What we know:
The chain is α+β, with helices and mostly antiparallel strands. The protein is built from five helices and six strands, in the order H-E-E-H-E-H-H-E-E-E-H. Helix 2 links the parallel strand 2 and strand 3. Helix 1 packs antiparallel against helix 2 and helix 3 runs antiparallel to helix 4. The C terminus is likely disordered.
Amino acid sequence: MMKSNDFRLKTFILALIVSFIVFLGGYYLYKQIGVEQPAVAKLSSLIKGQANIEKNGGIYEVMVEPRKLENLQQSWTEMNTLLEKQLKGKNYRIVIKDQPNRVLQLRYETLQPAIYEALAQDHYVWLKEEIDKALEGTNINYRLYIDDQNLYLQMEQGNYYLYQVIKRENHAKTQEA
């Protein structure tokens, strides 16, 4: 009689372990095949470059390495729309891996105070004039876009490019007031 109960307990524990492993495997496959892989494939196609998604804590880190983009704002909006649909309300953060050279990086660093001042005071015409002055006489092309959520700056020099998407936090606060 004791051996029968021992056998049942061991069978129950083994079934519990196997069920747990099957559950974890099924969840992993769902996450990989049902969520992450389709999002990566669609993002890669959208940006004509490479994309990768990794879960870091409770947030999906979406790394995108696009080729040159025509319109950073439009591409950003399309990426967000796609990710909202694919990740179904889960938290995510997009990180753009651009291809800057030293000149683009230095020019961006000198523009940062003007960019953040423009964001704080909503002076975007002034910012455009400051960027024009800072890039005058260089072979750097740029595009500046602004919407209700972000400021988008794309700078290009030859085969190199720098993309910055900066949240308009002050604007969001004034909209709520």
